[in-house]
Amino acid sequence: MLENYMGILMLNEREDNIKSLTKSRPIAAIPIGGRYRIIDFVLSNMVNSGIHNVGLFTNTKSRSLVDHLGSGKPWDLDRKLNGLYVFNLTSERSELRDIDVLNDNMEYIYKSKQEYVIISSSYMLCNMDYNEAAIYHEQSGSDVTVLYKKTNSGKSDYLSCSTLYINEENKILSVGKNIGSSDKINISMEMFIMKKSTLIDIVKKSKETGYHNSIKAVIYEHILKLNVNAFEFKGYIKRIDSLKNYYTASMDMLNTKVTKELFFSNGLIYTKSKNAAPTKYFNGAKVNNALISNGCILKGKIENSIISRRVTIHEEVEIKNCIIFENCEIKKGCKLTNVIVDRNVIMCENTVLNGSVDFPVVIEKKVEPYQF
Question: What's the Cα-to-Cα distance from 261 to each of 46, 118, 126, 264, rounded to whole Å?
Fold first, then answer.
């Protein structure tokens, strides 16, 4: 177990292609799988691997994220020693700069008693055990170990991701960008393992030169100066950086094999629990291949869809390949196909919406319930 490791989550993921779901929340707080948030996966991975000191650096639109995390109790991080530390920044900068953020909170890093650190983003959806990667890092003598995934779908998935060119000894020779020219590529998971002292040196030197604004940029730019190795992750992974990827990952969860791997393979995925009555199925309701959360009232037809908590679906409704967020009401006669409905939406009677797999229709969230 990684008791000598601390975790740092940098929630500065680019939101250009998923803005319809991130106007009032960061990517980490987007609901997924009916009852989870995206951040639950990386946070559970760290806790299941034995990491109990996690620092989370987020931006100003993080009310829903902070509410979801609370004291960290669902992840056993409400501790007197170590635990979950949320740094909610008030910077007016349009982008969250890794180096500035860490430099401004260096006291937290200095006071942490762990010798090693794992830095990660939140939007790499997977279930992994960091222990094997940590053992490899320590035995290899690397300054930095980058976790990566071999993929055969580089032309369609992971566009604009960093690609790694690796030799037979797993040393990273160079870093590029996926422009969709090849299917077989090595994708960086944006997870880095290093000694805490190495992280401190990187931050100090970057501030002195004023040249870099992110940890990964420093590491990638100094591949030849630092001893940077790669560790392969062989399980299921999805990068949630676009609406299409979010929709595809959600639909993947309807596959039993993917669900078992994503939620159970290397430990459970934990989330904030909410007390609610079981879902009530009325006569005439038909449900086929769907994830249904608690507290719902179902009277219509649901196929290949994900229904979150406290959703009401009236009679004569047909929902296919859809994702319905919490507290929504789909009234009589609606027909929805390839649609994402964010929280607090009341769908008017006989509404018909048809999206596609590549371009699902999104009905955006409102603070109070409203009719569409």
Answer: 16, 22, 9, 6
Phi, psi of 274 (to 5 degrees): -130, 130
Burial class (CB within 10 angstroms; exposed 0-12, middle 13-18, buried 19+) of 83:
middle
Task: Tell me if 161 sits within 8 A of 239, measured CB to CB.
Answer: yes
Mean pLDDT of the residues in the chain: 91
CB 58 within 8 A of CB 90: no
Q: Which two tokens stand for residue 127?
A: 């279930």
Radius of gyration of the chain from its Cα atoms, rounded to whole angstroms: 21
Q: How many angstroms separate the first and last alpha carbons of the chain?
A: 50
Q: What's the CATH code, domain 5-264?
A: 3.90.550.10
Cβ contacts of residue 293 below 8 Å, gap of 6+? 34, 35, 279, 307, 308, 309, 311
Predicted model pTM: 0.94
Domain ranges of the chain: 5-264, 280-371
Beta bridge partners of 57: 10, 87
CATH number for the region 280-371 comes to 2.160.10.10
Residue pLDDT, tens place only, 85-114: 998 665 544 455 788 888 888 999 999 999
Decide whether 5-264 matches 280-371 in CATH topology. no
Q: Which amino acid is at 317?
A: V
Strand partners, 166: 172
Q: Which of 123, 112, 105 is nearest to 39 (CA)?
A: 123
Structure tokens at 285: 């309701």
Phi and psi at 233, nearest 5°, equal -100, 130
Q: What is the pLDDT of residues 264-291, one digit of tens each?
A: 999 999 999 888 899 999 999 999 999 9
Residue 140: burial class (beta carbons within 10 Å; 0-12, 13-18, 19+): middle
